[in-house]
């Protein structure tokens, strides 16, 4: 597999008092890359280290124990290696990563029910640690979305006011990429090339490399660029739903994770709108010369369709 060239993405300081400058930086990043870093994001390093430690401990458990918490119909719980397949390579079994999904708690709506928890005897701090990270990441994501709204010449509270967070779909996903997997050109890698389905993704990693992006989806051969680790930062990317919402003004970028000869642990946090919210082109992203490119669709319907297609392709 050809080496990816290093890419220097924009870095946005969430503690900056100049909101307009921060919003402008985000707009440039979302138009040109679909990815950027944020610093001074409000998630304490110690909390992230606890999440990574709990994640590592869980993924080291026997497969039988992990499979007892297998992902349910609410998309919560454990997925084994090769459970997800998003590539069309005939010789590929799917992604070699293993994952664990955690949603909101304390809510009666179906989107946020169904979390699966490891034994408190073996993982006494798991639930408290994960829900603390969930709350902090959600607050950070809402701050980023406020800046995104400003970058689109909308009210800073656009997403709040239109009901995007009325029944929020916010999911924490723990990921483990085994170090003993050999990368190949026929799709046998940690995470095959894909774009995220939803609105916004916040990614924290243990510093191990392997994340690549491809800015031109239709280019052949594809040009892959390495997203290197910046200590203390989060990596943020736009998903397909926000690309659709902005009428493709912002881009949802292909990315993948390739093996690098050592285990890699990361923590992804996905923020999506309320499932009943109808996604239609933002007024600031269309005009007579550039009309809406997509019909309106409910957020939940769109995401459910995309998620189901991911697991239908898997061999196990």
Report what the structure shows:
- InterPro entries: DIOX_N, IPNS-like_FE2OG_OXY, IPNS-like_sf, Oxoglu/Fe-dep_dioxygenase_dom.
- It holds the Pfam family 2OG-FeII_Oxy.
- This is Fe2OG dioxygenase domain-containing protein.
- Belongs to the iron/ascorbate-dependent oxidoreductase family.
- Helix content is 27%, strand content 21%.
- It is built from 7 helices and 15 strands.
- It has helices spanning 19-32, 45-59, 63-67, 126-151, 158-161, 240-245, 299-312, and strands at 5-7, 11-13, 35-39, 77-79, 98-102, 169-177, 191-194, 200-205, 211-214, 225-227, 234-238, 254-257, 264-272, 278-279, 297-298.
- Strand 2 (11-13), helix 1 (19-32) and strand 3 (35-39) form a beta-alpha-beta unit.
- Mean pLDDT is 90; it is low at 108-112.
Rg on CA atoms, Å: 19 Å
Overall residue-averaged pLDDT value: 90
- How many angstroms separate the termini? 26 Å
User: Strand percentage, roughly?
Assistant: 15-25%
Low-confidence stretches: 108-112
Order of strands across the widest beta sheet? 2-3-11-8-13-6-5-4
* Largest pleated sheet: 8 strands, mixed
Class from secondary-structure proportions: alpha+beta
Shape: globular
Q: Tell me the series of helices and strands, N- to C-terminal.
A: EEHEHHEEHHEEEEEEHEEEEH
How many helices in DSSP terms? 7
């Amino acid at each position: 597999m050809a080496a990816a060239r290093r890419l220097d993405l924009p870095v946005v300081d969430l503690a900056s008092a100049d909101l307009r400058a921060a919003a402008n930086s985000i707009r440039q990043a979302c138009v040109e890359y679909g990815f950027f870093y944020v610093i001074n994001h409000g998630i304490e390093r110690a909390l992230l280290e606890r999440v990574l430690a709990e994640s590592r401990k869980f993924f080291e458990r026997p497969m039988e124990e992990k499979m007892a918490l297998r992902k349910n119909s609410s998309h919560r719980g454990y997925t084994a290696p090769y459970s997800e397949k998003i590539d069309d390579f005939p010789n590929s079994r799917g992604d070699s990563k293993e994952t664990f999904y955690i949603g909101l708690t304390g809510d009666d709506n179906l989107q946020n029910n169904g979390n699966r928890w490891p034994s408190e005897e073996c993982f006494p701090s798991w639930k408290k640690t994960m829900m603390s990270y969930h709350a902090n990441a959600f607050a950070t994501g809402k701050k980023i979305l406020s800046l995104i709204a400003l970058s689109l010449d909308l009210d800073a509270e656009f997403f709040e006011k239109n009901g995007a967070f009325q029944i929020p779909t916010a999911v924490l996903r723990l990921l483990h990429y085994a170090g003993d997997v050999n990368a190949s050109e026929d799709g046998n890698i940690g995470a095959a090339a894909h774009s995220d389905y939803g609105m916004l993704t916040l990614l924290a990693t243990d510093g191990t490399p392997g994340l690549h992006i491809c800015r031109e989806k239709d280019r052949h051969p594809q040009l892959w660029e390495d997203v290197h680790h910046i200590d203390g930062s989060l990596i943020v990317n736009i998903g397909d739903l926000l690309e659709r919402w902005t009428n493709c003004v912002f881009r949802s970028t292909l990315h993948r994770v390739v093996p690098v000869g050592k285990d890699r642990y990361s923590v992804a946090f996905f923020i999506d709108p309320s499932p009943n919210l109808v996604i239609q082109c933002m007024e600031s992203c269309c005009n007579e010369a550039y009309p809406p490119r997509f019909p309106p669709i409910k957020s939940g319907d769109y995401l459910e369709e995309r998620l189901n297609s991911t697991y239908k392709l898997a061999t196990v």
